[in-house]
Design a protein that fits this description.
With about 150 residues, this protein is α+β, with helices and mostly antiparallel strands. The chain is built from 4 helices and 9 strands; from the N terminus they run ββαβββααββββα.
Length: about 150
């Protein structure tokens, strides 16, 4: 149904519970494998009133994760993503690049499809990337992102 921000949390709402088990398992896999996952969790049994195009009620679930404000920057592997990803890396400190590289290596290993989330490019810490909306299957984009990070190192 979409993504909404409320205070420091992001809510991705689903209008059915069909994907609940898979999404919950995907988040748990990230957590147990050490992939930075923005503190995501799933919440079931929610009833939403969706106003557009007219009032409708859905019983579904939400993925609730931390929302990162600037200096964190959004990245994703959808559409024409490479230029925007490079723009983020242009700002990156060496330590940030090390952290991004380590996390992207794990994303490749886990076959994270459609990598997306937040990067903090100017930090001196290696805690520089948080993945959100995590799914597994193809590592093609994650491998391409990793190769770009390695170019910057």
């Amino acid at each position: 149904m979409g993504v909404w921000k409320k205070t420091s949390r992001a809510y991705k709402l689903f209008k059915t519970t069909n994907q609940y088990d898979r999404v919950t398992k995907d988040i748990e896999t990230a957590k147990h494998q050490g992939l930075p996952y923005a503190g995501a969790s799933t919440a079931q049994g929610l009833v939403y009133t969706y106003e557009n195009p007219k009032y409708r009620h859905y019983q579904g679930f939400a993925v609730v994760a931390t929302w990162y404000d600037p200096p964190w920057m959004w990245f994703d592997g959808q559409g024409i993503w490479e230029a925007a990803f490079r723009d983020i890396l242009d700002l990156a400190t060496h330590n940030a690049l090390k952290g991004i590289k380590t996390s992207m290596e794990l994303a490749v290993k886990l076959k994270v499809s459609d990598p997306q989330g937040f990067i903090y490019p100017t930090t001196q810490s290696k805690n520089t990337i948080q993945f959100v909306d995590i799914h597994y299957g193809s590592d093609v984009i994650a491998k391409q992102m990793l190769a770009i990070v390695e170019e910057y190192m």
